[in-house]
Amino acid sequence: xxxxxxxxxxxxxxxxxxxxxxxxxxxxxxxxxxxxxxxxxxxxxxxxxxxxxxxxxxxxxxxxxxxxxxxxxxxxxxxxxxxxxxxxxxxxxxxxxxxxxxxxxxxxxxxxxxxxxxxxxxxxxxxxxxxxxxxxxxxxxxxxxxxxxxxxxxxxxxxxxxxxxxxxxxxxxxxxxxxxxxxxxxxxxxxxxxxxxxxxxxxxxxxxxxxxxxxxxxxxxxxxxxxxxxxxxxxxxxxxxx
Length: 242
What we know:
The chain is mainly alpha-helical. The relative contact order is 0.06. α4 runs antiparallel to α5 and α6 packs across α7. The longest helix is centred in the first third of the chain and has 96 residues. Strands 1-2 form a two-stranded antiparallel ribbon.
């Protein structure tokens, strides 16, 4: 740029020497101080252009770095979203597993309670069965149970008649006494059972069963848990035949 200015100045000076007539009418040549001022101004503009280019380059680099960081942040955010979705799925699956485990625990507790109830019922049943039938019933327990059933039968028969309801109660009491006497018969290896009818006596039953009336005392001894008087029999009651 400086060389261009100098060339222009020399050209102007040459033309002034070659053409003196024109010299009186041409514009005056800029002094050297003006040229230096122009050169300084031009140099300053060039520096500003270089600074502007450097700033633009730095801005482009900063923009590209920002875009790179944005892309990285977007990828990280997407990865975190996927991990969160997997965590939510795992939490839901865990919750379902816990609910299933809780239900299984409740079912197991209910089954245990039911098994405990069944075991209690079985124990009660075994206590009412003789060892020959797989139970634990003792002879004294069987006699006591039969005596209780007989008292219930007597009390039921003594109640006022109430129609069909009383007949059902009497039939139930007779059946229970027969069952208890049957269990006692198994424990004592008795010959069998006999249900007393109207006008029966121990002597008459002895003659029917043993062929002689003389064994009525044996009948009385085998049923002492029910009979206090050999001459007082209750129709419908069940006797053991020793």
